[in-house]
């Protein structure tokens, strides 16, 4: 199967090059301008730009893109995995006296189409990477028409404008993230953007005290977001969590909700102050984007209390950073973030659970050209458990990224 995919791609790429000189449904995108609606790269060139190729005889343009990224890590205290997971400190098995690791798993491949129709432009976007297991795993798969989006993409609850530039995948801990399947409508008016979505519902239930309890979601998650230019954004969500009486005999419901805001404030021509705040209840799986089974053990959205009631977990997250461009080619970022959750300390099983995690970093990045960047970053993680015990860890990450 792998060989078939490689052969198909080898056939398609020359075909795209051969038609590059033909008339195009759209002008070739100038270097530096965004051509996709997916995530802009936060490592390397400011936007992952590329030229488009027309499918002869159609009004459809296609574009291949992505990047190759090598990450090299040195862990002084705990092995934090291939994408810097501060919550790895919760597991004593991750302790180390010093460990070096190299990985290219973050590398991505994406494919975009735009088709001109009598009723407007139809766009599609497909992207995958190789985390966490070296296999090609889906990140985005969606289509857009008018203001509507349908498919799998970033949750409408999250923002990018206040997320700092970092070598770490996903940025600092405590910044809302996630890529659920969804239906979204976006309206833009000048510098203002309004968006609402119905998203795939799910929640991470703590395994403590919930043996045999089966979860279910009756209603989709509802989100709303407002953004002013690239300066300020605020979003909110509400979701229902429930258990399945038909399979486990437990019929309980509770509500998850939250508000997130980000700010990007220029301080002169070369420095930007960025800030993030996320507060609510039942947000653990948004702030620690891992499978529900893993999140349930580390940052659960809800738990079953001693009386058998389903309770959502309150949480708070904050982050600040400063970004400075030393020259056209060199930039740095320094920042810190903190996530805390209110697990019930009267339940013995939660004593070893996470109470709060603090993460800080500093980096230096060299944009060698529009397609090649390299950098080095220091990362520090510090956790405290419900029982008061704490651990910290230090990591050095060096990366090189080739965009195409």
From TrEMBL:
One of its GO terms (molecular function) is porin activity. Residues 1-20 form the signal peptide. Transmembrane segments: none annotated. GO terms for cellular component: pore complex. SUPFAM superfamilies: Porins (SSF56935). It comes from the Bacteria. Pfam families: Porin_2. Keywords: Ion transport, Membrane, Porin, Signal, Transmembrane, Transport. Belongs to the alphaproteobacteria porin family. This is Porin.
């Amino acid at each position: 199967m792998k060989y078939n995919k490689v052969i198909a791609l080898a056939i398609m790429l020359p075909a795209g090059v051969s038609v590059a000189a033909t008339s195009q449904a759209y002008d070739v995108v100038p270097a530096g301008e965004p051509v996709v609606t997916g995530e802009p790269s936060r490592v390397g060139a400011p936007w992952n730009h590329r030229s488009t190729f027309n499918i002869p005889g159609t009004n459809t343009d296609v574009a291949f893109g992505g990047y190759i990224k090598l990450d090299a890590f040195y862990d002084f205290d705990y092995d934090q995995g291939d994408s810097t997971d501060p919550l790895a400190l919760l597991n004593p098995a991750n302790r180390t006296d010093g460990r070096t690791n190299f990985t290219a798993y973050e590398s991505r491949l994406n494919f975009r189409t735009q088709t001109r129709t009598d009723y407007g432009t139809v766009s599609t976007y497909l992207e995958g990477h190789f985390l966490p297991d070296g296999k090609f795993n889906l990140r985005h798969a969606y289509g857009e028409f008018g203001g509507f989006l349908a498919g799998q993409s970033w949750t409408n609850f999250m923002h990018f404008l206040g997320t700092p530039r970092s070598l770490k995948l996903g940025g600092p801990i405590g910044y809302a993230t996630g890529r659920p399947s969804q239906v979204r409508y976006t309206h833009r008016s000048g510098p203002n953007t309004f968006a609402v979505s119905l998203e795939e519902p799910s929640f991470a239930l703590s395994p403590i005290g919930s043996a045999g309890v089966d979860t279910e979601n009756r209603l989709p998650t509802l989100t709303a977001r407002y953004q002013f230019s690239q300066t300020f954004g605020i979003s909110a969500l509400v979701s229902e969590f429930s258990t399945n009486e038909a399979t486990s005999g437990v019929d309980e419901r509770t509500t998850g909700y939250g508000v997130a805001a980000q700010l990007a404030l220029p301080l002169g021509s070369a420095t930007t102050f960025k800030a993030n705040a996320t507060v609510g209840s039942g947000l653990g799986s948004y702030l620690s984007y891992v499978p529900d089974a893993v999140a349930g053990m580390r940052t659960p959205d809800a738990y079953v209390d001693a009386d058998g009631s389903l309770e959502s977990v309150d949480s708070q997250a904050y982050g600040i950073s400063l970004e400075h461009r030393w020259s056209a080619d060199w930039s740095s970022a320094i920042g810190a973030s903190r996530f805390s959750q209110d697990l019930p300390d009267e339940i013995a099983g939660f004593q070893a659970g996470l109470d709060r995690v603090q993460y800080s970093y500093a980096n230096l990045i060299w944009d060698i050209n529009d397609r090649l960047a390299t950098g080095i970053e220091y990362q520090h993680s510090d956790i405290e458990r419900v029982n008061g015990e704490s651990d910290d860890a230090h990591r050095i990450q060096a990366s090189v990224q080739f965009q195409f």
